[in-house]
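Late entry, FE2/S2 (inorganic) cluster complex.
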Amino acid sequence: MIPGSFSYYRPASVADAVKLLSDLGEDARPLAGGHSLVPMMKLRLATPAHLIDLHGIAALKGIRHDGNNLVIGAMTTQHELLASDEVAKAMPILHEAALLIADPQVRYRGTIGGNVANGDPGNDMPALMMTLGATYRLEGAGGARDVAAADFYQGAYFTALEPGEILTSVSVPVPPAGHGYAYEKLKRKVGDYATAAAAVVLTVSGGKVATCSIGLTNVHETPLLAVDAAKAVIGTSLDAATLKKAATAAEAIMAPAADARGPIEYRKHVGGIMVTRALQRAASRAK
Amino acid sequence: MAKTHVTMKVNGAEVEGLVEPRTLLVHFIRENLGMTGTHIGCETTHCGACTVDIDGMSVKSCTMFAVQAQGSDITTIEGMANADGTLSALQEGFRMMHGLQCGFCTPGMIMRAHRLLKENASPSEQEIRMGISGNICRCTGYQNIVKAIQYASAKINGVEFREAAE
Ligand SMILES: Cc1cc2nc3c(=O)[nH]c(=O)nc-3n(C[C@H](O)[C@H](O)[C@H](O)COP(=O)(O)OP(=O)(O)OC[C@H]3O[C@@H](n4cnc5c(N)ncnc54)[C@H](O)[C@@H]3O)c2cc1C
Ligand code: FES
Ligand code: FES
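Prediction complete; structure with ligand written out below:
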């Protein structure tokens, strides 16, 4: 399994990378950790003529605070997210989810930018980013623009990225102190993509859910926000009837593909269970 | 496709070669450098047999291009023995604890365990199991691989290795 031929570039700045991408046209692709792209190239499902390696661009690295947001450079790896005290403290759900991605070797190489830009419904970060209300910074020849994660995903492998644009960073609002969180992921084995997964971030006040956001992974051709399910739990103490209502509302928007991870009905069913478990665990953590 | 000149350090020695951009690092190591300890098991980034250590990271070398390794510092299984030629703690552990049967997965297991112990010299059994979760072994059932890594951890920390009661 050897990829088709391509020419390789290693620009040192975002401006150079953007220029290369627009000069070389549609057959040019950015290369981040390569752990989605290289396997696809080996299977010849992707045959880019030019690869623009982003590893030489120092500006795409690092995690910093900007007001109430954590701004994470696109080339920050899952391994670096796991090593970050900043992330563990401010956004423990990001730590929890990163630990469920693939295996250690893949996490050393796979980047947050590659994970969210890839557009694969199986990737874990996109639904999480929608749940957290994150924004992506995209930079192209015409300048920079910010796109909400919730508006970024348009279809399987189809995103708001325009030709010639690079995703440079992800900006995530820090959830309020005392929030509850959980990322529940059902997979066949360690290192596997989700059969179905659910992210929940909520706050509780006076024993009742005050705010809630629910994201779903790999139960549709794009990541989903389960808006009705989240609405159903607000103002409740998450009693059994409410949990059931939330799971049913979430299942109603799921449209998974049948694949080796199971038939459609099964994946929807376990998707609902992931929502229930994530809600319960998030509530148990809320202060 | 025009070939590119690459240089890198492998097991402490400067090496160079001419590669196509599409040449995978694992092929460069095996074919250009003739170091065949790094194995190819699956080619799909799942088995970990091709794991090498690059600039302080465990990397599946079947999923990285040799051109991406330009200028980096790589250790392969050929570089794992002690300077005087004796077996390193990990190699000794795999031997003493019967951490292998056919041996195909062993180079990748040892390279992964090497980085794991560098980051955490005293991992728990659970941490070892999660630490090698990107490496597949079709023979051993993992039990003795875990013991081998525990043996090496004890040796590195200068404590006596005791097998946990089953
Ligand atoms: C065995 C295995 C198991 C895995 N399991 C999981 C899992 O459980 N969950 C999960 O979420 N992922 C999983 N992955 C995928 C892994 O996390 C990938 O590393 C990740 O999805 C892609 O990130 P990357 O940095 O490797 O991107 P690449 O593979 O380099 O790129 C992916 C795509 O995004 C584009 N791209 C990359 N960076 C940018 C950028 N900054 N701007 C614009 N476009 C960009 C590329 O052109 C390409 O089209 C797995 C991978 C493997 C090999
Ligand atoms: S050959 Fe590289 S992971 Fe299997
Ligand atoms: S010893 Fe045979 S695959 Fe591990």
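The two ends of chain A are 51 Å apart (CA to CA). Will revisit in the morning.
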